[in-house]
User: Fold this.
Amino acid sequence: MTTSSALTESLEDYLESIYRNILKKGAARVKDIAGDLNVRYPSVTSALKNLERRGLIRYEPYGTISLTKAGLGVALGVTERHRLLRSFFSQVLGVEQGLADETACRIEHVLPPEAYERFVQFMKFLFVSKGKNKDWLKGFRAFVEDNAVDATCPECVEEYFAGTGFDLKGGMRDAGDA
Assistant:
């Protein structure tokens, strides 16, 4: 019964589903999780046994599933990363809600703690500075409208950044580095 080994993206999704079902319905059941994740009951049962062995849930076949303290901590972390990323994609970048949610679900699992911490700081900075500069989001959206780029074309992206000081091979350069 150990939580020390890293969880797969799939197991994190199971914990997130359990948590959301508990919040929404007061309990989590195999059928709810299967529906959320679009998987079959035997897959859910296998994942639940794995999570139980790790000490993250309490599970009785044909009963409800509950989170342990450790499981709740993991579920809260995944859920919060998802919420913040979804908000960024939809509210800041203007990505359609469904795509924002799907993208957040994929990224939430691979975002290292250090990068997530900096991302949280960035989001707070954006929304705190929004009060001082009310037009920043409007300006960004206008920029997006006026500066389309085909991100599937490497040459187009290279041309898009030409002259900006952004080095595609290594990141941002200071003006003095050129």
